Amino acid sequence: MRENRLAVVRTLAFKLFVLLLAFAAIPGGVLAWWTLRHMEQSQIAASLEAMDGMVTTKAEAVERFMADRRANVERMASLVASRVEVLERATASDVDDPEVEELPDLEDGSSVEGTGSPAPPGDTTADEGETPEDEEPGDESEADEEAEEEAGQASEGDEPQEATAGTGAPAQEPFEPRLDDIGPDPEELQVGSRRPRVEDAEIQLRRKLSLVLWDRSEFEELLVIDRDGYVRVSTFEGHEDTDASGVEYFQQGLRGTFVQPVFLSPITERFTMVVSTPVYSMDRAVIGVLAVRLNLEHFFGILTEAEGLGETGETIAAQDVDGELVLRAPTRNGVGDGPGTVLDSRDIPVALAARGEAGKGIATDLRGERVVAAWRHLDELGWGLVSKVDYDEATDPVEQITQELWLALLMIIIVAALVAVVAANAIVRPIRQLRSAADRVSRGDLDVEVDVRSRDEVGQLAESFERMVAAIRYFRERGESKTGLGDIDEDESLRREIEAEEAALRGEEPPE
Fold first, then answer.
1. Which secondary structure element, helix H or strand E, spans residue 317, and what is its range?
2. pLDDT attached to residue 153
3. 313 in the same domain as 391
């Protein structure tokens, strides 16, 4: 009996649970899924916009940085041009030109891969070794006098002093020969006075470079290279008297302002970059090249700045060199061995940016991870720039909300099951009481009472049942009083009346 009651309760509870799922949990789950998908798409769109804004800001900062450095180098070239021209004239007038041993090569930028940025169009350039076409030939002695006069003006009023920081060579007094010391031969006097003029012009140029470099932390070294590739003056003493004719930034610097790609400096053992530009004489002839080594701490700081990129975001700068992607700047997560590392060309955003395209989207990076990325091309350097963040991190807020919603849905299902069980018990209990009471009445027990009090249909059924039992009890008592013997069977008509009432209550046909 108890098992039957439990089976009834379970069946009814299951039906109620299904109803609750069908009309509450399932629609709620579908609505939650649609909301989460919409939130995920919105979050990805917001992340794409953030990455696009980040890469645009960094690209503009890099281009502004390089434009400022190019302008500064060109301005410095114009500042030292007069000193370089004095040195060139002093060298040209030095007829006492002894044979010089072959100069050592300038070992700088040898670890650079690929090429640098091209010279901007429209620059007034001159090829290596080019001499001004519009220079008017003049008397040799007249040129000598002019060079002597300018060298004298450059050194006039200067006291002998030690060289400023970065030269490594002491200043020297200009050589002033006396006739009675040298001898009466004017040719010997002329020959003996020219070499000191060259040295004095180099000292004055070195001093000028040191003053220019004095308060500029963004520059590490300044080199003046003549048209033949000979390093005449440098703020790093070890680079003087070396041959730079085979160095790319000298060759390209003769033609226009040139930016050498990032390389590992053999001097500072740090990654650096060189900007070179022609040095022009008064008549706009190329008389040399000014090469400036940059301090890239601020430059790399722009690229590695992680604000707004979260925990996994980073910016990658790379260049397409003969079909290979070459890393040009350090990365936040330490990709490869730093600048110069050849990257996997399967990194679609980096490859697209290096080839001159711009865009944004979801892609796979070098690690094989899905990322939200935006990319741009840097026309100033010929590099590709990519800002990216892991897809999981970009959608992490949505994932947290998803977990919370699924937990809430699980709680709803558990509550629905409990509600179904409680509701099933509340419905089954009075029905079970009514059934038990009907069984007792059918066995002749008319003293049964039904303890069901409710205002629904079950309560109304209980009240009808109690009236039926009262009617049966009344008719039985009436029959007993009428016969006086308590034998209802003797009064056939009363018995049939009672049976008809009972059958009517049970919904059966009355017996004939």
1. strand 314-321
2. 39
3. yes
> Is the separation of the CB atoms in 456 and 462 below 8 Å?
no
**Residue 254: Cβ within 10 Å count:** 24
Does the residue 258 lie in any domain? no
Torsion, Cα 446 452 457 460, to 10 degrees, reads 50
Cβ-contact 393, 312 below 8 angstroms:
yes
Q: How far is CA 68 from the centre of its chain?
A: 25
High-pLDDT (> 90) share of the chain, %:
12
Whether the pLDDT of residue 255 is over 90: the answer is yes
CA distance 180 to 309: 77
- pLDDT tens per residue, range 399-412: 778 788 778 878 87
The SS3 call for residue 88 is helix
- Quick one: pLDDT at residue 147? 39
Is the residue at 441 inside a domain?
A: yes
Domain CATH number, residue 451: 1.10.8.500
Buried b vs exposed e over 80-111: b needs ≥16 C-beta within 10 Å?
A: bbbbbbbbbbbbebbeeeeeeeeeeebebbee
DSSP 117: B
Closest by alpha carbon to 291, among 363, 242, 345, 351?
242
Residue 394 phi, psi (nearest 5) = -65, -35
Query: Would you state the pLDDT for residue 257?
Result: 93
Mean pLDDT of 363-392: 87
DSSP state, 158? Answer: P
Say if 185 falls within a structural domain.
no
